[in-house]
Amino acid sequence: MEGVAGVVDWEQVSAGGPRYEYFTQLLTGEINAAIEGAMAAGATEFVVNDAHSKMSNIKPDSLAGNARYLSGRYKPMYMMEGLDASFDAVFLIAYHGSMSATGSALSHTYFRPAIAEVRINGVIAGESGVNALVAAAHGVPIVLVTGDEATAVETASFAPGVRAAVVKRSVSRFAAESLHPESARDLIREAAYRAVSDAEAATPPQFTAPLTIDIAFHTSDYCELAARVAGVERTGSHTAILRAEDPLTLYRCFVTVVLLCRGLVE
């Protein structure tokens, strides 16, 4: 949701906030624009995985394309629940930059109180890069990402050839110049059409084994918790490394670390 055109503040994306309902409507509009563009290019089936906050932000009957709606605060595969090898393509809608991104609006990586930086095989990764591990495991290409420019660049590091719909220019972490919502939807609709039209030539993300995720935490408490997970080695007071031979195992290990860290404050 943080990558929606016009979104620049946490209250806009937080349930119960005074403007939350309005901005979920904008999010729905961008999702539907992506579905409509994909439909125009011949796509016929859609699954929308609600991946923001408690993951129940969308009104199911407002989704285009008779899309199935996957929601709920606990999904074992988190943002990539529901994906398998039967899918033709992945869209990443309304994504945001990593905590390491310079001035990307509302940047964070999975859990902002705990995680300061994530690197996959040495390359800085946002949520798009982490989620690319699951797409790689199932052999499904990521063909579209929407959000700001920093998000587009980070995604391309793990999904070469991904088409980007840049709907806002981040000025700082809490300011951006956004396209008008209708213009943003038009851009997304066209990008989705082209992404699906070219999907047969798209290739899934590629990761070279052995695979690693390096995590820098904001405090040593989170690092100490992470080191209790099998496959995680503490490398410093605030840093740890996750190792695995395949991308799905690495992703599951990372999500386990995230869920454990959430328990420290929730």
Structural account:
The protein is an alpha/beta fold and 266 residues long. Helix content is 32%, strand content 20%. It is built from 6 helices and 11 strands. The chain has helices spanning 20-40, 127-138, 149-156, 181-197, 220-226, 247-265; strands spanning 47-49, 68-70, 90-92, 115-120, 123-124, 142-148, 163-172, 175-178, 211-217, 232-234, 239-244. It has a 5-stranded antiparallel beta sheet. Strands 3-6-7-8 form a 4-stranded mixed beta sheet. It has a two-stranded parallel sheet with strand order 1-2. A hairpin with a 2-residue loop joins strand 4 (115-120) and strand 5. The longest helix has 21 residues, at 20-40. It is globular. 46% of the residues are buried. The model has no long low-confidence stretch (mean pLDDT 97).
Could you outline the blueprint of secondary structure elements for this entry?
Elements (H helix, E strand, L loop, with lengths): L19 H21 L6 E3 L18 E3 L19 E3 L22 E6 L2 E2 L2 H12 L3 E7 H8 L6 E10 L2 E4 L2 H17 L13 E7 L2 H7 L5 E3 L4 E6 L2 H19 L1
Parallel strand pairs: 1-2, 3-6, 6-7
Antiparallel strand pairs: 4-5, 4-9, 7-8, 9-11, 10-11
Helix pairs in contact: 1-4, 2-6
List descriptors.
alpha/beta, 5-stranded antiparallel sheet, 266 residues, globular, 4-stranded mixed sheet, single chain
